[in-house]
Amino acid sequence: MNKQRIAVLGAGPMGLMVAMELLKQGHDVDIYERDDRIGGMSASFNFEGLEIERYYHFICKTDFPLFQLLDELELSDRLRWTDTKMGFFYNGKLYKWGTPMALLTFDGLSLISKFRYGLHAMFTKSIKDWRPYDRMNATTWLRRWIGERAYNVLWKSLFELKLFEYSENISAAWIGTRIKRVALSRRSLMQETMGYLEGGSAVLLEKMEQFIVKNGGRIHLRSGIDRVEVRDGKVSGIVINDETISCNSVISTAPIQYVPRLVPTLPADFVERIETIKNIPVACVILKLKQPLSENFWMNINDPSIEIPGVIEYSNLNKMSPSIVYAPFYMPKTHPKWSESNETLIEEVIGYLHKLNPAFRPDWVLAKHCHRYEFAQTICPPGFYDMLPSMKTPVDGFFMADTGYYYPEDRSINESIEVAKALATAAIGTQAL
Ligand SMILES: Cc1cc2nc3c(=O)[nH]c(=O)nc-3n(C[C@H](O)[C@H](O)[C@H](O)COP(=O)(O)OP(=O)(O)OC[C@H]3O[C@@H](n4cnc5c(N)ncnc54)[C@H](O)[C@@H]3O)c2cc1C
Q: Of the residues 8, 31, 42, which should be mutated to test ligand 1's pocket, given the most ligand atoms within 8 Å of the CB?
């Protein structure tokens, strides 16, 4: 293959990794990013003096592609592991969660339900081939294993507050890989262990950027691609602010829902396939607190008076003071809360905190913020493998993938890296020039 001029759309971890792979093979690479910074969902912001991710990020023990990249970029020494705690706020009471002892002392389930729950977790950990679970319905699968009552106590509100009208039509493979990833991130049966990068995801993103620039790649910020130019069925360039820039190929790493607008010449049946894939936005509140809210990194919530699926106290993973708490509102754009202001959502979260910790007082809040991402969570119904359009599109030279292509795995930087390699291979093969 000759040296190609390739435009990569998006400078999230996937776009950066695609660019790294293409540069290693000797191609000429430009990355175009609409935002004013690299990182996409992993980007950081200045939270009143603290550089921190817009959305929380934890690393699991099985994130092997990430470990390989950290090694390649000489960042392995920045990886830290913390023995984390988990909580479950159920009907007005905070329980310890995530260990056999916590399960035994939880008073919301019968002994038989607890046994079935534990058995299901053990079984899920052992699954290696997720194909048979692709066509299975997640809620049916969970109900069958743990029973209706335990499903209602442990899962129902999590599904409903994250997936809304899609709750009853989710693939068992997607939920199963989530359970397995977290279940395997342990030091022992009794102790969950989660990882983070000292300095945050920014440390990795900046090193990727340095690699790209050092190897001749270029990153253009505030440069959203408006359209992909196609001549005789083949990519000929991109258009940004009415300026046409020629290139041989375009590799999009943005949510695929943007693609039909970017490439109007795509055939209708391909566009239809893209449009069947749904996504849920997130509005994620982040608070800086004078005192820790709890001892937990992760707290799941099932309480009729609290309309968020959980809170993530990041400072119990990456120890820091003041405390940092994230509270995500996942919701379809049709949900009335989506049109509420960030300030309203922030106040709603603050209003919940005294329930989670009765000692909490509003003057603990030192800083507050809310970020939104429109295509934050791909909805993966049963049969999702067959729903995903191919990375190689009918337009010659136009390739695409997004976080949905991690399936059956859920969103993670680890999966961005893995899918980026597959995307680069789909686009230009594996032969260096
Ligand atoms: C609430 C939340 C919690 C998360 N928790 C974790 C976690 O604990 N651990 C973990 O590993 N991961 C986590 N993730 C997921 C992780 O952040 C993502 O998997 C990862 O950042 C996705 O990277 P990406 O490059 O594939 O896509 P994105 O981050 O979506 O990047 C796509 C980029 O394309 C850009 N773009 C869009 N349109 C255009 C255009 N027309 N022209 C140019 N650029 C364009 C966007 O601005 C964006 O920067 C979380 C995400 C969220 C939202």
A: 42
321, 111 contact by CB (below 8 A): no
Interatomic CA distance for residues 194 and 81, integer angstroms: 6
d(CA 407, CA 393): 19
Residue of the CA atom closest to atom 11 of ligand 1: 412
Is residue 6 left, alpha or beta, with left meaning phi > 0 and alpha meaning psi from -120 to 50?
beta
Instruction: Please check whether residues 268 and 386 belong to one and the same domain.
Output: yes
- In this structure, which amino acid lies at residue 236? S
Query: What tokens does 211 get?
Result: 């690699």
Angle of the 111-126 helix axis to the 138-146 helix axis, nearest 10: 130
Instruction: Give nearest CA residue, ligand 1 atom 52.
Output: 55
The residues near 325 (Cβ < 8 Å, ≥ 6 apart) are 286, 287, 289, 293, 311, 312, 313, 314, 315, 353
Nearest CA to ligand 1 atom 8: 57
- Report the atom number in ligand 1 closest to the C-alpha of 406: 19
Count of structural domains, the chain: 3
Question: What is the per-residue pLDDT across 340-391, written as a single tens digit (0 to 9) for each?
Answer: 999 999 999 999 999 999 999 999 999 999 999 999 999 999 999 999 999 9
Query: In terms of domains, do 267 and 252 share one?
Result: yes
Same domain, 361 and 239: no
Residue 122 belongs to a domain:
yes
Domain that holds residue 120: 100-182
Determine which residue's CA is closest to atom 27 belonging to ligand 1. 12
**Residue 197, SS3 per DSSP:** strand
Q: What is the pLDDT of residues 188-231, one digit of tens each?
A: 989 999 999 999 999 999 999 999 999 999 999 999 999 999 99
Question: 63 vs 43, 187, 195, 241, 414, CA distance in Å?
Answer: 19, 15, 10, 39, 6
Final residue in a domain of this structure, among 122, 153, 182: 182
Does the predicted model carry a pTM greater than 0.90?
Answer: yes
Say if residue 433's pLDDT is above 70: no
Distance from the alpha carbon of residue 100 to the mean position of ligand 1, in angstroms: 34
Regarding the beta carbon of 284 and ligand 1, being less than 6 Å apart is answered yes
